[in-house]
Amino acid sequence: MSKLQNRLKLLFAMGLLLGSIVTAGAQTPQATPPPPAPPRSLQVPKPAEKTLANGLRVIVVERSSTPLVSAQLLIKNGGEIDPPQLAGLADITASLLTKGSKSQDATQIAEAIEALGGALDSGARWDASTATVGVMSSRISPALAILADVVRHPTFKDEEIERLRQQYIDNLTVELGQPGSIARLAAARVVFGDAPYGHPLSGTLESIARIKREDIVKLHEMYYRPDNAILIIGGDIGANDAFALAEKHFGDWQKPMQILRPFVFAARVSDPSTRRVLVIDKPDAGQAAVYLARTGISRADADYFRGIVANSVLNGYSGRLNQEIRIKRGLSYGAGSALDARRSLGPFVASAQTKNQSGAQVVELLVGELGRLATAPVPDAELTPRKAVLIGNFARNLEQVNGLVAQVGSLALQGLNLEEINHYVDSVQSVSAGDVQKFASTRLEATGANVIVVGNAREFLPELQKQFKDVEVIPIAELDLNSRTLRKTDAGASNN
User: What is the mean pLDDT of the chain?
Assistant: First the structure.
């Protein structure tokens, strides 16, 4: 064999060795993930605003990075104004806005928006009803014309009402077969009772069946008025041009002579002495849904940022609940929490779904994690990435124009300073481990949380009764989501 051949073989072997070293190095996982990079400061252009003569507040946020504009007409009331027997009325009313106006039927509205290359949507949430349109900036004027038409002149045709009613009933029927949905709906009743946030936003099978066209028309006439609305326009448009378009399409919207009185909340405050430990027995359930639920905070609460950081420690894939229940013990596909800050006190929930046999154990773990957060400070190595998650999610929501408009609209709805959007990062970063511990001990204490478990009670009830002395059991056939007691057989349940 020649010297040249030997050298070639040697070079080939060295190449293979080097390649294997590089490949092995590339496949070797890093022992610990890198720390989050320092958060960047955020600077959203200062919104411009004016109030039209009819009382409509108009807010404009300029962003010229993309040739898009989003506009949201926000009515300052949502599901909280539903009459006691008509849960779901606000949501149905808002959803029907795009289903026909005096000048166009539902198909024509959809075709008109499609021709503009845009999107139109409407619906209700707690505290607000919205209609939103998004288009290229060159087409915003005809898009606003459609938005104004559907909000101001809906026809609420009987056939559209019945079609939507059936959709709601179908969705509710599916939900009532799922332990997680049942637990979520029952938790709201347990926490808020007959107060405005107690009923399901999308109604119940009984309440949806009761809603009549005149109920929808009455709600629209009462609350859909310029002095109870905010128009937010954001994107590639100048403030003066946006104000001119608002005047053109909404300026002749007449304000009713009758004064609209502010909605008054009959808020409930959690009382540990009246905590309910509730089991909804669903023998055919393949798994158990476990909820801890209590009142949390309002959006205007001074503890808002402390609250969302505390919740971030608990929530998410890397949050404590998922770490403890899924990753360490394999008891669930996912566990988490939510702190829903609303105009009045919203709910705080911690939840997980698990096999029926481990239902009581998951309750104990959820309670234990709330207690641990309240009794020991969060290490910086844990707190820093949980803050980073909040900041990252917030930034992602602002990447698109419709997300920016939604954020500004939320601040305006709650009567907060619009400049707060530029202080979000600093506000999150300023929360200390001591702040989190204090918030958890005073606002999220486990002793004030109600316990709701939905599943095959035979599998977990004996163990649950060892943890709590007064466990209430409601068979699924006797469940009534229209009643604060959640029982069909209780006197007065039909009053809701």
Answer: 91
Is pLDDT at 492 greater than 50 in this prediction? Answer: no
Is 9 a domain residue? no
According to the model, what pLDDT value does residue 260 have?
Answer: 87
Identify the CA nearest to 79 among candidates 405, 449, 340: 340
Domain total in the chain: 2
Domain hosting residue 111, numbered range: 48-250
- Tokens linked to 394: 């917030």
What tens digit of pLDDT does each residue of 12-61 get? 555 555 555 445 444 555 566 676 667 776 778 899 999 999 999 999 99
Whether residue 459 lies inside any domain: the answer is yes
Residue 409 lies in a domain: yes
> How many other C-beta atoms can be found within 10 angstroms of the C-beta atom of residue 459?
18
- H or E element in which residue 429 lies: helix 424-429
Q: Is 263 among the domain residues?
A: no
360-370 burial, b if ≥16 CB within 10 A, otherwise e? bbbbebbbebb
Q: How far apart are CA 265 and CA 255, in angstroms?
A: 24
State how far the Cα of 407 lies from the Cα of 136, in Å rounded to an integer.
20
CATH code for position 367: 3.30.830.10
Q: Are residues 146 and 221 located together in one domain of the fold?
A: yes
Q: Which of 306, 179, 464 is nearest to 473 (CA)?
A: 464
The stretch 462-479 carries a mean pLDDT of: 96
- Shared domain check, 425 and 290: yes
Helix 304-314 and helix 380-399, axial crossing angle in degrees, nearest 10: 110
* Residues of the chain above pLDDT 70, percent: 89
Q: For residues 216 and 35, what is the distance between their CA atoms, to the nearest angstrom?
A: 53
| Per-residue confidence (pLDDT) for residue 13, from 0 to 100 | 57
